[in-house]
Amino acid sequence: MRMFKNIIVLMFTILLPAYLQAQPGFSPKQQRVQQAVVKMFEDLSNRDAVSLRLDCTPDVTFYEYGQDWNIDTLIAKAITGNKAANFKRANTFDFISTKVHHNMATVSYRLNSVITREGKRTTIQWLETVILIRQKKHWKVKHLHSTLLKKD
After folding, report:
1. Under DSSP, is residue 17 helix (H, G, I), strand (E, B) or coil?
2. CA distance 41 to 36
3. Model pTM score
4. I need a surface site. Which of 15, 25, 51, 142 has the fewest CB within 10 A?
């Protein structure tokens, strides 16, 4: 029994640092960059094209579903073409990495979105990387690359 306890303690001692390392703490600067990403998705959820344009650079690019989109394409597909009266989208983020270097930042995360449209609920998961540029003290999305992981 004592040997079993020693093995458990040893495994805990080995695995705990690896677990803690996998759960990064983000600095306030990194959190501000992450908040810019969250805000952009709030704009999409609220179908607010004006705010979406303000939260992105004018030449923003999106790689979605194997296609190269600009801001007009995203607005057409996600906002203008989305006429459902009872539309709701809730997003949750699992930030993996956030790196800030002067006026540029990169953010990688897992995005889980629960979308309700016309009474039908769909859950979609993506793995995404975003490049942001700081302009006039505001972080703006310059590029987003998205990989669809799961849709049900």
Report:
1. helix
2. 9
3. 0.82
4. 25
